[in-house]
Amino acid sequence: MAAQTLDTPYLIIGAGPAGSAAAITLARAGKQVTLVDMRDFPREKVCGDGLITDSLNALQRLGIELPAEGYYHSKGVLMYSPNGKYCEFDTEALCYPRIDLDLRLLEAAKAAGVDFRPHYRLRRVEQADGRFGAVEFVHTESKESLTVRAEQLLLATGARSEPLKLFGVCQRERPSAIAARAYFRVPAAVAREFDKIIVVYHQAILPAYGWIFPQADNTYNIGVWDIYRKGDDGKGGEIRSVNELWKVFIETFPPAVRLLANAEQLGPLKGAPMRLNLEGADFYKQNLLVIGEAAGTTYAFSGEGIGKALESGILAAECLLEAAPEATPEQVGARYAKRLVAQCAHRFRTYEVAQHWLSKPFLCNLVTRQVQRKGYLKRQMEGIFEERVDCEAVFSVPSLIRSFVS
Fold this sequence. Notes:
seven-stranded mixed β-sheet, about 35% helix
């Protein structure tokens, strides 16, 4: 079997949103970057495909424009509570399949000069003199070996624990949540009735939630996600079958039943684990920075992780570019971790509060009813989607009281 050896200043492992965002930022600054992924693109990625404000802002920073014919611009967001009532939010959101978004990001990285190496699986890493040195990959098809020697590494391998363990940055092997989704195409007349993003706190699947996201060409991404609940000892936790939750959702949630009555399923149901709330991994070690979902950049409240993954990749690259020549890798890593926490940690904590509230039937029903009044709470909830408002201030007793009078 043939073996290759490559020297590069920057090695990024994982070409999803975080890895590609970091690669684009570094390459446009004139840096030589090697980007490695287990798969070639386009490739499917289990996701709700929703792009909210933080995602759109990050894509704008990267200069990524979405083709008008490829995405769906939702006319709003509907949130259903366990009692079957719903409220509506007037907020901008796009739906764009990850298979297309990730390819677009990768193409921008390659256009900036990034050396992309697909079909390579991470196998081994060497350490010497207090830093990671040679990283060995094996080709998934030819089985040839690729050894990359890099000055700086960025790990963007998603929720899988194996790469985190290999680099010694895994704090928790188990992911935080799991999601599953499938695509459907429906008759045009039916699609016209379902022109908004739908988020569902359905009584039959709580504390999990379901979603119905419209796509282009009368198609829909329909899925569920479930957060693992800790056991009494804080180590275990209940694991429900996400496939069963999804089946219950589409068979018992009335709008889903109506939407899918004459629908064509486009491919099988697919699931994936997730890491939430900036938990479960160290953000840096030696000359390695951990970015994207590997660092837990998915929200507990919405399950949205694209925006913060993009932001973490951009932030990591900026920390590397701004580092003084005499700065040690540990100093750069500590700066990245500090800025990531300062930029995101409070919002993740408060979104966890929001998720806790909305997973409780009584509170979710109450919030929905108060939002229907189209006053204070509706404005605040729209501000949450647009990252203008602090969840902790909204999901509180004083806020609910205020919603009765304003």
